[in-house]
Give the backbone structure.
Amino acid sequence: MARDLVLGVDAGHTATKAVLFDSTGRQVARGIGTVPLSTPRPRWVERNMDDVWRTAHEAIRACLAAAGPEGRAVASVGLTGHGDGLYAVDEWGRPVRAAIVAMDTRADPVLAAWRDTPVWTRALTLSGTVPFAGSPAAVLAWLERHEPGVLERARWLLSCKDWLRLNLTGVVATDPTDSSASFADLHRGAYSQELLDLYGLGGLAPKLPPVRACDAVCGTITPEAAAATGLTVGTPVVTGAHDVDAAALGIGGTGPGELCLIAGSFSINQVISDRPVVDPRWQVRRFVRQGWWMIMSTSPASVANLEWFLQVMGAPAEHRDDLYDLIGQEAAAHLGGRSEVLFHPFVYGSPHRQPASGTFLGMRGWHDRGDLLRALMEGVVLNHRWHVEALCSRLRVTGPARLTGGAARSEVWSQMFADALQRPVVVTDVEESAARGAALLAATAVGLLDGVEDPRAGTSVLRRHEPGADRVAVLEEAYQVYQAALETLGPLWARLDAAGAAE
């Protein structure tokens, strides 16, 4: 049997997907598993690292089983996963504590101590980004102060996809997109001792993993991993990439100036550039192509809010497969007229300096769940708009926005993006964009494609949403109220935050 299929594994914050593609990126089969997030204390967001690996190998096995006999023809494996946070392992490759994910905000006091000091401005100049609570710099600085034994026991400080690759191949490595999260020089791409020293973490340099190209073969499937996953011993595994970059590859958004939006757990708003443009409102990281940068304005404030809302309010489990259709229909029934209820989508954090939190404003006794769903969906979109306006203020952004992530599965939500951004939004025929991007890197590594932009792996537009005049006006008014409320609530959020920290 010809080995012309590639497997893309995408480990997100709440779900891991294993997707089999042919060499042109056409989906063949999929397996999926969920990993619960744990909040053992306020501000902490963690996950069990062994559960992450178990979910991944179960998803891979389910995917191969769904493919049938074709599942034996895997030529290579590509990996992607959520960025930032920390997956620390000892010298035997075992976890030294639970993983800390990027939605964790325990390190906010660390940021407060760094902000308005030379640490902040120097970090931006050297790395192209200032730290946020879930970034490796902030998380490691917090651990240095509160759990120093963890760092003493740790041999390697990994990201999510690198933990999975270690289990698949036994090889420790990372790639330029993840290595540039906190400690890489903006221009050279290599780790910077000056940056580590700036954060007071200079002694951790030997614990950072070696950096390999995103499309480099970085080990092969071990006998142990083969037994767990069903993959063949010796199958090549490539280094992979941060899921932000992989998703852009997956939907074909790799041209300079193209705007890509990922509405998943995080609000990701990104533009590829052939030069670094530094601004504290966004991060500048290495892209999968050498000499290019990913400029992304982000916050943990997108579809994760919906997961939280449904967990609190309840959603029938039997309808989970068509969840986005259901919530779209429920919200659509309440779309008439101006926005009466406003939602700030900051349940897990915000892009703003003040300690903003999730907030519903304007609720009345006659409002029902559909009104709140509409407000939540609009709030998520308005937060994306804030990021997009920041990017457009200094970058040349052309054409329609490409939308992927959970919100892209809802026609109602996708249309809200077009109306709020006042620009066309396209959704491609790619269902699993990050997994597809990882698979394209895997196909390139073994010569099935002539690079990730090989025209044989192109995408098609599934839907195009044009801004509607009436809804543009409604969401423009909502955005003005949203912005005014941000400013007004700032001092109140600060008081609530201080009260929570004192408990």
